[in-house]
Structure formats: C-alpha cells, structure tokens
C-alpha cells in the first residue's frame, strides 16, 4: 500500500515527532519497509540523485519556501545508510525551521545532542529519519518487538525496516521496555556504546578501548560460524556500579558476530529490584 499525504494538513506540524506522527496517522496501514522515494515525490522532491559526493553523505537543494527541491545522496555508502540519509534530508525539507540548502557530513548523520542551532537541526533530522523508518506507534500496535528483548529480534527487525543494524539497535533499546544498552566493536575494540534513556547505570564503553576482559565478547571466537552468543556477566563488567546492593548483580550479554571482525552486543539489566 502506497503512502498518500494530505499536504495541507501536514503543513500544520513543525517538529520531527509531530510531522512523522501525522504521516502515519494519515497512513495507518502502511507496509514496511517505508517507501521513502514515494514520500519524497508526494511532498515536492522532484529528483533524488546518487552521486560520488566528496566529504558529504547527503544534500538538500530546495526553493526558498521549500515547496519543491532535489536531494543528492552519496553513492559511496551502503544501501541501508542511503535510506537513512534520504530520510534525514526529507526531515530538513519538511521541518519548517530547517534551511532550504543543506549539506550533511558523516558527523552530522551521527549527531543526537543539541549544542547549537546547527547541531540541533542535524540532530532533529536524525530523529526524523529514525521515526520515519521505524515508527514507534506502528511497531507497538503491530507487536513487532518481542516481549523479552534479544539481539535476534533486532537482526530480524533490521530486515523488516530495511535499515542498518546500527540504526535498528539504536532505536530498539529505547523502544523496548527493558533496560538496555548496545555496544559496537571491531576486533574487540570499542567503536562506541549507547545506553537507553531509562537505564539507571552508567555504561562504560569508551571509544578505542578494548572490551572488558571478563566480558563474553572478550572470549568468543569471532571467526566461528556461530553468529549468536549469550551469557550472563557481572553488572560491573559493562556498567559503573556504586551501590553496594548492586555489586553482585548480573546482566545478560548477547553478541551478534558480523563479518570482518565487527560485532554488536546487546546488554540487558535484568533485575532492578532492591537497587
């Protein structure tokens, strides 16, 4: 089922949350993965070009009132990241206060926190992309997230929404009611980690550090044909623990081993009683 948009009604909304929510209020039976090209054509994007861009991942060029425009996407990034970049540029186009000419770098595509107006726009466009590609309301209504969080569920949802594993996991940890964190590594060296908003413990996953020696990830064979690994480890392995009542607590560490030394690890704090 194609998305059909009432642009007059959509024009009443100004934030990433409100605009994406209205898109899906108008299209409650939309199928996944979301057809971004169709949305783009509906809102006034006349052309999407995939080009050998240097130094940027995506760009928007629109008229002053943003009634029409074109989007350029780097052809050097993988298809799932192209989708996120396209959704990001659509965010710039549809959020009224954003500029009509935007050039977005790799760093822009990773921004989440607002430190100034420019960063705030990039962070909001990233939020828009996440909400458009993985709409929380429809995910909950269709019960696509398993009752008990697990990394297999994340891998399955990645295919459902046609997004990168990283984008899917980053959304998943806040969509699920469990207290979760996710860590990305290359050859057991931490690339970065992300904690869910509700987790009361501080995640210790410093960039370029080796994974904790007592973690499951430090011990598994990254070259094995077995891709999924699960084991309980101490809470203090991955989190800063100050309360005495938490010293002996354990968490569930689940790792999905990818290709060429990459791995994604989901951390689940299982019991917060008496903490």
| Mean pLDDT value | 93
Strand order of the largest sheet: 6-5-11-10-8
Number of strands: 11
Give the SSE string.
Answer: HHHEEEHEHHHHEEEEHEEE
CA radius of gyration: 20 Å
Low-confidence stretches: none
Question: What percentage of the residues does DSSP assign to strands (E)?
Answer: 15-25%
Domain IrrE N-terminal-like: 47-169
InterPro entries: IrrE_HExxH, Rad_response_metalloprotease
Pfam families: Peptidase_M78
Protein name: ImmA/IrrE family metallo-endopeptidase
Summarize the structure in short.
This is ImmA/IrrE family metallo-endopeptidase. InterPro entries: IrrE_HExxH, Rad_response_metalloprotease. The protein is α+β, with helices and mostly antiparallel strands and 275 residues long.
Molecular structure report:
The chain has 275 residues and is α+β, with helices and mostly antiparallel strands. It has 2 domains: 7-137, Orthogonal Bundle (Arc Repressor Mutant, subunit A), CATH 1.10.10; 149-269, 2-Layer Sandwich (Beta-Lactamase). Helix content is 32%, strand content 23%. The protein contains 9 helices and 11 strands. The chain has helices at residues 7-10, 16-26, 36-43, 79-94, 117-133, 136-141, 151-161, 165-175, 235-238; strands spanning 45-51, 58-62, 69-74, 101-104, 179-186, 189-195, 202-203, 228-234, 239-240, 250-257, 262-269. Strands 6-5-11-10-8 form a 5-stranded antiparallel sheet. It has a 4-stranded mixed sheet with strand order 1-3-2-4. Strand 2 (58-62) and strand 3 (69-74) form a beta hairpin. Helix 2 packs parallel to helix 5 (117-133) and helix 4 (79-94) packs across helix 5 (117-133). The longest helix is centred in the middle third of the chain and has 17 residues, at 117-133. The termini are far apart.
């Amino acid at each position: 089922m194609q998305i059909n948009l009432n642009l007059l009604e959509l024009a009443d909304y100004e934030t990433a949350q409100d605009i994406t929510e209205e898109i899906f209020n108008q299209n409650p039976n939309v199928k996944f993965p979301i057809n971004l090209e169709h949305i783009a054509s509906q809102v006034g994007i006349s052309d999407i070009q995939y080009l050998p861009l240097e130094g940027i991942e995506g760009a928007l060029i629109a008229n002053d009132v943003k009634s029409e425009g074109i989007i350029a996407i780097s052809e050097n990034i993988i298809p799932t990241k192209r989708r996120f970049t396209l959704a990001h540029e659509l965010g710039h186009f549809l959020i009224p206060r954003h500029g009509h000419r935007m050039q977005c770098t790799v760093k822009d595509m990773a921004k989440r926190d607002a430190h100034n107006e420019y960063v705030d726009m990039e962070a909001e466009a990233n939020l828009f992309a996440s909400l458009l590609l993985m709409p929380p309301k429809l995910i909950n209504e269709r019960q696509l997230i398993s009752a008990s969080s697990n990394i297999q569920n994340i891998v399955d949802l990645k295919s459902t929404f046609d997004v990168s594993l990283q984008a899917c996991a980053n959304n998943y940890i806040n969509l699920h009611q469990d207290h979760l964190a996710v860590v990305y590594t290359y050859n057991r060296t931490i690339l970065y980690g992300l904690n869910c908003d509700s987790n009361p413990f501080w995640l210790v996953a410093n960039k370029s550090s080796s994974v904790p020696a007592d973690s499951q990830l430090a011990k598994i064979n990254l070259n094995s044909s077995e891709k999924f690994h699960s084991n309980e480890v101490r809470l203090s392995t991955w989190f800063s623990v100050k309360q005495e009542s938490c010293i002996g607590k354990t968490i569930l560490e689940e790792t999905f081993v990818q290709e060429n030394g990459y791995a994604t690890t989901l951390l689940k704090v299982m019991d917060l009683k008496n903490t």
